[in-house]
Amino acid sequence: MFMSLIRNRRSIRSFSDKEIEPEKIALLIEAALRSPSSRSLNPWEFVLVRDKGMLDQLSSSKPHGATFLKHAPLGIVVLADPKKCDVWVEDASIASTYIQLAAENLGLTSCWIQIRNREFGPGKMACEQVADLLNIPAHIEVESIIAIGYPVDSLPGHPKESLDYTKVHDGIYGKNFS
Ligand SMILES: Cc1cc2nc3c(=O)[nH]c(=O)nc-3n(C[C@H](O)[C@H](O)[C@H](O)COP(=O)(O)O)c2cc1C
């Protein structure tokens, strides 16, 4: 089941108008809260955004790679508190991935929007823009926004032949895995 899910998963950036059922949103949140974190410190927090106007504003948080958010019925903003854990980036990334895999499992589709280390525009970072829009306290960082919805189209999973097995070293660096 899991291998089939990851073989077919793709980032999809176009969504149908269909709203996501509340039961599915609850499962997405459960998945996020079940994601593992270093020392179980759980530094992450999440903002669910369903309001069309807010999704529209968030879709301009950076110049490229976020515009499709305005057509998604749901965005989950993944935050973390760096004071709670030094490896909060890893923790927030794992939570983002858990949300994406749970979405896939529920017949939804998703795409990660990178916010950390991205610019909104001259002199302002994307995380500051998102924080302004969502009233996020200054000590909380924004990792990503996961755009989620029902797909209108699909992309084929990456074929097995496209996987780069030269990246895998067997026992010692440089020895091919076969
Ligand atoms: C850390 C990370 C950041 C990403 N940021 C963006 C983004 O800002 N905008 C976007 O459209 N896609 C983003 N993506 C999606 C990637 O572009 C996508 O996963 C990659 O092209 C491979 O395509 P696939 O997911 O369909 O296999 C991001 C993915 C990851 C893992």
Task: Give the topology, please.
Blueprint: H1 2-8, H2 22-33, E1 44-49, H3 52-58, E2 74-80, H4 88-105, E3 109-114, E4 119-121, E5 124-125, H5 126-134, E6 141-149
Antiparallel strand pairs: 1-2, 2-6, 3-6, 4-5
Helix pairs in contact: 2-4
Bound molecules: flavin mononucleotide.
Question: Can you describe what's shown?
Answer:
- This protein is of the alpha+beta class.
- The chain has a single domain, classed as 3-Layer(aba) Sandwich (NADH Oxidase), CATH 3.40.109.
- Helices cover 30% and strands 19% of the residues.
- It has a 4-stranded antiparallel β-sheet, sandwiched between helices.
- A hairpin with a 2-residue loop joins strand 4 and strand 5 (124-125).
- Helix 2 (22-33) runs antiparallel to helix 4 (88-105).
- The longest helix is centred in the middle third of the chain and has 18 residues, at 88-105.
- The protein is globular.
- The two termini are 25 Å apart.
- Residues 10-11, 13, 65, 111-114 line the site of flavin mononucleotide (FMN).
Task: Name a few traits of the molecule.
NADH Oxidase, 178 residues, globular, four-stranded antiparallel beta sheet, alpha+beta, binds flavin mononucleotide, single chain
Give a brief rundown of this model.
With 178 residues, this protein is α+β, with helices and mostly antiparallel strands. It has helices at residues 2-8, 22-33, 52-58, 88-105, 126-134, and strands spanning 44-49, 74-80, 109-114, 119-121, 124-125, 141-149.
